[in-house]
Amino acid sequence: MGLRVARLRRLVLERLMRYYRFLSEGRGRRPAPTVTSAEIADALDIDPTQVRKDLGAIGLLGMGRVGFDACEICRAIRIVLGFDQPYHAVLVGAGHLGTALMAYARFSQYGLNVSAAFDTDRRKIGHLVAGRRVRSTRTLASYITRHDIRLAILTTPVEAAQKVTDRLVAAGIEAIWNFTPTRLTVPPNVFVRNEHISLGLSELAYHLTHLDVTRR
Amino acid sequence: MGLRVARLRRLVLERLMRYYRFLSEGRGRRPAPTVTSAEIADALDIDPTQVRKDLGAIGLLGMGRVGFDACEICRAIRIVLGFDQPYHAVLVGAGHLGTALMAYARFSQYGLNVSAAFDTDRRKIGHLVAGRRVRSTRTLASYITRHDIRLAILTTPVEAAQKVTDRLVAAGIEAIWNFTPTRLTVPPNVFVRNEHISLGLSELAYHLTHLDVTRR
Question: Does residue A19 sit at the B interface (CB-CB below 8 Å)?
Answer without folding.
Answer: no
